[in-house]
Design brief:
The structure holds two protein chains of two kinds.
Chain A lengths: L7 H9 L5 H4 L6 H11 L14 H7 L11 E3 L5 E5 L8 H13 L6 E5 L16 H28 L6 E4 L2 E4 L6 E3 H5 L32 H6 L14 E5 L8 E6 L1 H4 L5 E5 L2 E6 L2 H10 L1 E5 L10 H7 L6 E5 L2 H7 L2 E9 L11 E7 L2 E6 L4 H12 L6 E4 L14 H13 L3 E4 L2 H6 L7 E9 L5 E9 L15 E6 L21 H18 L4 H7 L4 H14 L12 E8 L2 E11 L6 E11 L6 H20 L5 E2 L2 E2 L17 E6 L18 H13 L10 H10 L6
Parallel strand pairs in A: 2-3, 7-17, 15-16, 19-20, 23-26
Antiparallel strand pairs in A: 1-2, 4-5, 5-6, 7-10, 8-11, 9-10, 12-20, 13-18, 14-15, 14-17, 18-19, 21-22, 22-23, 24-25
Helix pairs in contact in A: 5-6, 13-14, 16-20, 19-20
Chain B lengths: L1 E8 L2 E8 L4 H8 L18 E4 L2 E4 L12 E3 L12 H8 L9 H14 L5 H8 L9 H12 L3
Parallel strand pairs in B: 1-5
Antiparallel strand pairs in B: 1-2, 3-4, 3-5
The chains are: A alpha+beta, B alpha+beta.
Chain lengths: ~725, ~150
Amino acid sequence: MTIRDFSAEEMLREQMGRLPTTDEANPSTLGTLDRRQFLKAVGGGIVVLVAMGDPGGSVVEAQGMGYPEDFNAYLRIGKDGRVTVFSGKIEMGQGTMTSLAQMAAEELGVSLQRIDMIMGDTDLCPYDRGTWGSMSTRFFGPAVRAAAAKAREVLLDLASQRLGEPIDRLKLKDGVITSLTDRSRIVTYAELAGGEPIAHTIDREAVLKSVREFKTMGVPTKRLDALDKVTGKAKYAGDIQLPGMLHARQLRPPAHSSELRSVDTSKAEEVPGVVIVNQDGLVAALHEDPEQAELSLGLIEADWQTPEPHVDETTIWDYLRSKDPGGEPDDVRGSVEAGAKLSAERFSHAYHDGYVAHAPIETHTATATVQDGKVTLWVSTQSPFGNQATVAEALGIPKAEVRVITPYVGGGFGGKSTAHQATEAARLTRIVGRPVQVAFTRAEEFFYDTFQPASFIEIDSGLDSEGRISLWDYHVYFAGDRGAEQLYDVPNSQIVVHSQGWRAPGVHPFATGAWRAPGANTNIFAKESQIDVMAAAAGADPIEFRLRNTKDKRLRSVLEAVAEAYGWEPQSAPSGRGLGVACGIDAGTYVAHIVEVVVDRTTGKVQVKRVVCAQDMGLVVNPDGAKMQMEGCITMGLGYAFSENLRFRGGEILDKNFDTYEIPRFSWVPKIETVLVSNDELDPQGGGEPAIVCMGGAIANAIHDATGARLFHLPMTPKRVLEALARLPDFDG
Amino acid sequence: MKETIRFRLNGQPKTLKTDGDRKLLWVLRTDLGLTGTKYGCGESLCGSCTVIVDGEAVRTCQLPMSAVQGKEVITIEGLAEGNAIHPLQEEFANRGALQCGFCTPGMIMNAYGLLLANKRPSRGEIVEGMEENLCRCGAHQRIVEAIEAASRRV
């Protein structure tokens, strides 16, 4: 008997999703039936028909399909003049609720205060694969802007008819259209909607507002979710409390490889008010009181068989090497042979990283009920539509009979790309016939996480006699290619990606997945450490060395900006100052960091005193939101840099709570300064992940600058720092 | 065993007939419908479930109901006075001292307890006082600034 466990393949399937057909994908496109359903779902208000152009190849590529063409899928103007914006992207702290509202308000020509956001409701919102990859502003943003701009033009056209004035004699302000000929003549968006669906087309393209015209975009804007969140009113999946609801606690295996041999629920069944389920691989105790559910679960006797563990966090890299699937050279420039000949000095190093947990403070949670034959779920998920498909498939019912609603999500970081708790809640609610809530305990959250995979990287590089990089032979194993690209002008270079990174089903002893900027943290730690090794060997200042080896304007501009903001004084490492530099590209955004550390040579403890980060993310929709994400990235990055390394024995996860798995605390946090490098000509690029990718590398370089000791291993724990110090030839500690 | 527990909750008297071993967190969330207090770890390690009991910040995930007998409990829902939110809430909101918001009620309640004990804490004292509250999004710097700003107003 095998208890239900989440295999890596299953995780992958939900993360990738199966490719939907066009009909499935655009439930609110104006097909006849779909349109009626849509109108029924959203109620009255204006519906304006207009042809929207191709959203563009990049959108289709990133999305796996295009976003709906009909702008009514994105917004509705109510009788009260309020504008509801529908977004398949969800809010998990990254601030998308606010930036999407800014974009809609700007293009529609209304104030931000008029906007209401509905996010991640599969019945109401346009299909979206998931909220990840710093894609919301980059790829969904343009769709929202285009939709709002089209709506504006159509409404102006209607106003022109209503007022009998040409459009160029109309003035639009906050949803109120005034005749410039006779200012007493006005009509509002609300009146134009009139509570009736209106089909109206125009044959001209809507032009997006330019940066100079912006009133709402580009302005630092307070979070729209702030008031809800500081008053306790913000609802998360676990805050949905339904009449008669049962809290489910489930029997879990001691290890991912465990098999259930027998189970006895008789004692648990004696708890008053408990409902015991032992069906289809689900063994659960349900109770109106979550503590009674927990108590009942403890009374279930289970006999597990667990195979002998063959790998743990200390032997994982040998194991991974044995699983090396090989890889093809990519982005080949010149040849490694030519590079070797050209090099006056060679550098060969290996870098290692372990498994890292997402550890959002809100654990995976789902509240499920059946209403009118439809399974309705409130889920903490980054992928409501993917989750809807997964649940429907598990239950063997059509997707249309599953509605996933995404309330506020209490942190995701990639970890809520999968939401198997929703499938469990849906199955349980159908079995017991009452609303059911599944909220993972912290131990379950660690156990069922889709961890950043352990990985290693080998780099063979060289410098020519003039201190330029002449060779770069890069091999990354199991971290994937994100962040592996060649950043510098190297004549002889190749990137070899062994395995497809976190998509390596069957390799890892438990599920792995996308962890904030997946792969990039590991790759850039290795790359920027290696660059620093060479800069030091060349006797060059680390910023000067980087500038010497790149003509990339955006890279140069963030390096120059961070140096200026820091007040950088060039000096080659190790200078004793404890300053480290790293730079990188992620999600279309360029970042450069300077960190300042103090190393305690007795304890090995490293304190980061100051971090300055410069970021070129193209046009910035909400500068304050962007800075918040940068600060969050820098702070979260301290964790993978210093402490986060999952401990396990085979499929058994040893870290079960925050006592042994340490995440950054207040005392760890340095003075953080962020600089947005102006680049308004470029469309908005990613903001949720870039500023985390340099943290490991910059800190490793700073430790080297402070002490001369080089760390090749994430996380850089006090023990590893002491070991690196002990390897120094003149170490006398 | 059921017992009668009388306490004040957000300024109102409450009488519950319930098992005194039950944890305040779950009674708040289930029986009383006050879901602003969050479960994060269940072992008093993260601080998401922090409320004020008789003027002190306390974690409720391990606090039995019997321990609040006769006490004054304030949760995040009880911090506002009428329509006016507390300066801590206002500073957190205005300064963007939150992202996902899940740890926020616990952060604010812990800070409230901190300011009750120390009206004008230094930055170092704020950091020390908040050290056991976890935030995964990395809003720490702004949280410290928000508490500092609020301390000048209360």
